[in-house]
């Protein structure tokens, strides 16, 4: 049901990312190209990793998990940050999402990683309920911050945003 992604999976990973972005009402923000994904996942220095969920009957990809390593200074070891987890609506409820998370938890255990973390949109109650059913807990004391586009360029250039 779950397998490590290969370079041949780049078109389906790209399509699944776009489906996820559409589901999250942010399709215009999904700008990654297949070439960028190939370099990130299979280039000389991979920055991320991916697993594919396939339908047991047809062997067709129905979901994916894309992740990378993070590091906890408090724990002193790596962890996994799950950037994307997505299962196509037609395949939901068949265990693919749980199988993807189980594989990442297995990798954590095998490699001595002590955290598996991700973000979920506050309005995505079905996903929140699913994650909590697995024992995941929200980190309510933390707020995610992000710099992008003009604000990121301005800071990098030593300017104030909007100046």
UniProtKB/TrEMBL annotation:
GO terms for molecular function: N-acetyltransferase activity. It comes from Streptomyces albiflavescens. Coiled coil: none annotated. This is Acetyltransferase. It comes from the Bacteria. Keywords: Acyltransferase, Transferase. Gene3D superfamilies: 3.40.630.30. PROSITE patterns: GNAT. Pfam families: Acetyltransf_1. Belongs to the acetyltransferase family. Residues 1-159 form the N-acetyltransferase domain. The keyword Transit peptide does not apply.
């Amino acid at each position: 049901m779950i397998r490590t992604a290969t370079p041949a999976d780049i078109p389906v990973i790209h399509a699944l990312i776009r489906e996820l972005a559409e589901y999250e009402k942010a399709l215009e923000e999904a700008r990654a190209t297949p070439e960028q994904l190939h370099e990130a996942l299979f280039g000389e220095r991979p920055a991320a990793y991916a697993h594919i969920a396939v339908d047991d009957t047809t062997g067709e990809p129905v979901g994916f998990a894309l992740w990378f390593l993070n590091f906890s200074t408090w724990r002193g070891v790596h962890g996994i940050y799950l950037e994307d987890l997505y299962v196509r609506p037609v395949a939901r409820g068949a265990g693919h999402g749980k199988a993807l998370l189980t594989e990442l938890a297995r990798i954590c255990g095998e490699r001595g990683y002590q955290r598996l973390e991700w973000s979920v949109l506050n309005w995505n109650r079905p996903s929140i309920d699913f994650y909590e059913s697995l024992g995941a807990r929200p980190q309510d004391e933390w707020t995610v911050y992000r710099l992008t586009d003009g604000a990121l360029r301005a800071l990098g250039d030593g300017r104030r945003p909007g100046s």
